[in-house]
Design a protein that fits this description.
Helix content: over 70%
Structural class: mainly alpha
Number of strands: 0
Number of helices: 5
Order of helices and strands: HHHHH
Shape: elongated
Oligomer: single chain
């Protein structure tokens, strides 16, 4: 049996295509500093946005770059040892 859940305002904003703009301009500081909130609204944008969300693309690209940089820094020891 599937339960009906109330929709949240963020889901409505994502469907309307305005959530990313609000996060970039009016709620930017809160979005950048609050990891729980950021993860929650990013998930909402992934599920409910009907168009591309550049804010989300930038966020995930930055996270990918951070992970790759960590990998490069972590493996420097072995890379230098091989040379």
């Amino acid at each position: 049996m599937k339960k009906i859940k109330p929709r949240r305002i963020f889901e409505e904003l994502a469907e309307a295509g305005v959530l990313a703009d609000l996060l970039e301009h009016q709620w930017r500081e809160f979005y950048e500093k609050n990891e729980t909130f950021r993860d929650d609204v990013n998930e909402i944008m992934l599920k409910f946005s009907k168009s591309e969300v550049t804010l989300l693309e930038k966020y995930y690209l930055q996270e990918l770059c951070n992970s790759l940089q960590f990998f490069i820094d972590y493996t420097k020891i072995w890379t230098r040892a091989k040379q």
